[in-house]
TrEMBL record:
Belongs to the complex I 30 kDa subunit family. This is NADH-quinone oxidoreductase subunit C. It is found in: Cell membrane. The gene is nuoC. It comes from Polynucleobacter yangtzensis. Its EC number is 7.1.1.-. It is a peripheral membrane protein. NCBIfam families: NuoC_fam (TIGR01961), PRK06074.1-1 (NF004730). Pfam families: Complex1_30kDa (PF00329). NDH-1 shuttles electrons from NADH, via FMN and iron-sulfur (Fe-S) centers, to quinones in the respiratory chain. The immediate electron acceptor for the enzyme in this species is believed to be ubiquinone. Couples the redox reaction to proton translocation (for every two electrons transferred, four hydrogen ions are translocated across the cytoplasmic membrane), and thus conserves the redox energy in a proton gradient. Residues 32-161 form the NADH:ubiquinone oxidoreductase 30kDa subunit domain.
């Protein structure tokens, strides 16, 4: 097994060259981190080079690294992680890329390379606010059109910013500021003698 992973890592280093920031083999998996400015080009090479032949994109998701490793993380805040599958070589790969600007997270869209990335990139945009340059239909997919913010960001308030409810007088759904009040939760203490058969 480790020979196959070492072969994959060697092929990645040979094909991608300076586009690679790091290659890691851990827990029976290979992870490659590529530069954001060569992300799209790297995706094409990963798919088209016969020594790699990653025909399928299995998954793509956004990640917010704020407070990662208890605040010891020194890298960029937002990343995009993709999982690829090569049917021809029967191996898998994790590809990671970091958005260079935390205030405006932007990476290239890989939808032209693997069309299955379409909804995955929309989900990462909706939940993390990561923008995908070249995506032709980047809009919310899970939250409502009027939703404010990106709920999977670490700095998003737990109770949210707005709530919606049905107003019977207006006969429609309305949005309003969150009305959840903080409450104190006191654990219930049972003080009955012989509770539960205890003597």
């Amino acid at each position: 097994m480790s020979d196959r992973l070492n072969q994959l890592a060697a092929n990645l280093e040979k094909v991608l060259g300076k586009r690679v920031q790091s290659i890691e083999i851990a827990l029976g998996e290979v992870t490659v981190v590529v530069n954001a400015d060569t992300y799209f080009e790297s995706a094409i090479l990963l798919r088209d080079d016969p020594s790699l032949a990653f025909e399928q994109l299995i998954d793509l998701c956004g990640v917010d690294y704020q407070d990662f490793r208890e605040g010891a993380w020194g890298g960029q805040r937002f990343g995009v992680v993709s999982h690829l599958l090569s049917i021809e070589h029967n191996w898998r790969l994790r590809v990671r890329v970091f958005a260079p600007d935390d205030s405006y997270p932007l990476v290239a869209s890989i939808t032209p390379v693997w069309n299955s990335a379409n909804w995955f990139e929309r989900e990462a945009f909706d939940l993390y606010g990561i923008l995908f340059d070249g995506h032709d239909d980047l809009r919310r997919i899970l939250t409502d059109y009027g939703f404010i913010g990106h709920p999977f960001r670490k700095d998003f308030p737990i109770s949210g910013n707005v709530e919606m409810r049905y107003d019977p007088e207006l006969r429609r759904v309305v949005y309003q500021p969150v009305t959840i009040e903080a409450r104190e939760i006191t654990p219930r203490i049972v003080r009955e003698e012989q509770y539960g058969g205890a003597v």
